[in-house]
Amino acid sequence: MSSIDHFNLWSFDLNLLVAFDALMREHSVTRAATRLKIKQSAMSHNLSTLRMLLDDELFIRVGQVMKPTPRALALALPIARLLEQAQHAITTREAFHPEQEARTFSIGFSSELEVLLMPSLTAQVQSYAPGIKLLARPAQPEEVHRMLDDGVIDLAIGCFGDGAERHRRKLLFEQSLTCCFNPKLLDLTVPISQSAYLAQRHALVSQNASIRGCLEYAMRTANVEVDVVMAAPEFLTVLSTVMSTPVITTLPTRIANCYGP
DNA sequence: GGGTAATCCATCAGGAGAGG
DNA sequence: CCTCTCCTGATGGATTACCC
Q1: pTM, full prediction
Q2: Residue A6 CA distance to nucleotide C1 C1' (Å)
Q3: pLDDT tens-digit profile of A84-113?
Q4: Which domains, from first to last, does chain A contain?
Q5: Which of A3, A129, A132, A149 is most buried by its number of CB atoms within 10 A?
Q6: Per-position b or e across A70-83, b if 16+ CB within 10 A of its CB
């Protein structure tokens, strides 16, 4: 088995291999930069450093694409395998035995999922892993990835953005939306037409500074406006408002089915 | 003209070394 | 051991060059 030349590896920033792999996959400096969530100029610097260290052009611009040189093609597979092995070595842990574990997991939730999932999750964890405790933490979409990076939470459950490549994601279920209103206060025919929906005054769940909350993107996409008169981060506040005020709200169907009027 | 790569320059973080 | 200063490298914004 050959020995590792630590001195040479120390002088070679191994992140450059990640940059090379991204360039190999994208054949574009700009797209490779986007893939690694850095700017194009930083990726261009990485490429120039790689060119200097490996003494080869590596990628030659041909029209709109960066064509790999024979040297780059020869390096592609070994580097990809190396990165795969490195990732495997870093992420693989000893077998997890929930029944023997004694620790607290912090889970970042969006508010509606916390109330939906925590009761059954706690019951299941208590059944299979009595030594494990669960700590629910509020998690806003704009800060959830930083909370994961800082170790504030171990896991996040909710409707969040993609984050970085290191953030693993799994789809739990597709979310649908349902309208809720108090029929004693609002005279609406079900199913509600789009024009009737847009004509109402609305109460919404909002986790951020926008009063349009989770509907902001949908409204912009559909190029429509609704009259939002109230927004709050907790869905129970919104549902209580709907019960006492002639407003309509749009909530995740699971919440509406559990707690709706 | 639009898209993309390369380059220049400013900023920031981290490390090394000097001095108290 | 701690603090300060300087140096180095990474990064991003702005700009330029190049290609279709």
Answers
A1: 0.50
A2: 31
A3: 887 777 676 667 788 888 889 999 987 778
A4: 6-91 (1.10.10.10), 98-157 (3.40.190.10), 177-259 (3.40.190.10)
A5: A129
A6: eebeebbeebeeee
